Amino acid sequence: MSACPLCADSATALLYTQQRGPLAQREYFLCPTCALIHVPNAFQLDSAHEKSVYDLHQNNPNDPNYRQFLTRLFEPMCERLPVGTSGLDFGSGPGPTLSRMFDESGRPCSTYDIYYDHVPERLTKTYDFVTCSEVIEHVAAPLDVFQQLLDCLKPGGYLGIMTQRWTYVDKFSGWNYRNDPTHICFFHEATFQYLATKFALVLTIYPRDVVIFTKPQAALGKESTA
C-alpha cells in the first residue's frame, strides 16, 4: 500500500500497474476516502528529469489554439472577476499565457513557477484570484500545494483549477492522460468535493477539466499585500 498524499489514508489500494511502454512497472494507487489516484514516490521523476520534460513544452502565448484551450478556465473565472481585480497564475510554465490573457482583460495577474519563475515572495501575498492550469496533476504533495494556494487567496476570492479528471476505474488503464511521466496525481469529481468539504469552500464543477473554488468571505486569510 501507499498512503494517500492528499488525505493520508493508508488504506489505498493498487489500482493498476503499467506493464509495457516507457512507464512499464509504474504503479497507481486509488484512495477510498478522497478518490485520488496517485503514483508512489518510487515511480516519480527527480527534479532534473521532470524539468527536462517541461522544457519540451511549446506553449506559445501567441498561439491562438493554446489560448482557445485556456479559455475553458479563463472565461468562467472572468465571469466572477470585476475588471481591476488582481491574481496569481501558479505554475505558469516556460511560456506564461493565462496570466497575459488576464492582463489583457484588465485583471493584472502575477506568475509563479518553481522552475521558470521562482519568486517565492509572490506566494506571501494575497490575491483576488489564483489559477492553477495543468499543474496540480504534477505535484507530489497535493494537500500542501492546495493549502498554499488557499493561503494566497483573499476572503471571497476564487481558485480555478484545470486538470483532466478520471471518471471510471474500468477506463483508467486506457486513459492517455496517465501516460505523461510527470503526471502523478489524478483527481475525480469526488476528490474536489472532498477538498471543498475539508476547507469549507464553495465548489463549482465544469465539464471535463475545470473546477472553481470560492473562499468564504468569513474565512481567515492573510492581510492583503497585493
Automatic annotation (TrEMBL):
SUPFAM superfamilies: S-adenosyl-L-methionine-dependent methyltransferases (SSF53335). One of its GO terms (molecular function) is methyltransferase activity. GO terms for biological process: methylation. The keyword Nucleotide-binding does not apply. Keywords: Methyltransferase, Transferase. This is Class I SAM-dependent methyltransferase. It comes from Pseudidiomarina andamanensis.
